[in-house]
Write a structure and sequence with these properties.
single chain; alpha/beta; Rossmann fold; two-stranded antiparallel ribbon
Length: 255
Amino acid sequence: MASREEKSGSSGSAGKLGSGIQGLDVLLEGGFNAGRVVLVLGEPGTGKTILCSQFLHYGVTQKDEKGVFIGINESKSRFLSEMLELGMDFAKLEKDGKFAYVDATEVRRIPEQARVGRIPVGGRELGIVNLMDLIQEAIEKVSPKRVVVDSISDLIFRFPRIEERRPVVLDIVEALEATGATSLLTSELLSTGESRTLQPEEYLAEGVIILRQLRKGIRGIQILKMRGSKIDTRPRPYAIRDKGIEVYATEELYE
């Protein structure tokens, strides 16, 4: 029989922020470490946005912790609609002043060669600068305890060489760390398997969670690292239900 903590998956403990996701906190030794930046990697359709949204929604509704979602991939209206279908009414939370959605979709549309007035500038670099400005503006406006940036893939993949990408990711991570909030940062998983190449953002985040789509619709979640926590690093199955993600923390995952 599952423990009370496993059933809730959201209780949290001292110095921890509950994830709001059934079963996940069992793998995290009680939740996310406060003030850290955690990277959520996954293939398309694995539920990265849903996981992050549950993290924010739980904080606002159950812990009275304000949240900010910085959306690079989708518009505010689409986000609100999709999350409402899962029972998360972020529009109401925003009206109550407890949540803010920052539409950053224009950041990824900046061309490789852009201009500031008549002066030509590198579009890649300008996109990153604009993103960090949006993060800072959101923090000043809401003073959140939880922040999500979804997703940085379109921005950082413009820098194909690792030596170029690493400082870009570092700037984003440091900008989030400076907020003092607990932050989830999503990106696309480029390869899988034991021999896969680690992505630069994995080295720089203090925690890494991988979501994968396996055979016959089976999904797997794995906590690769979480500094300061004793974690369960074994892959575990999870499902996306009517109310979001559920992690089966005591079940084995067979590929």
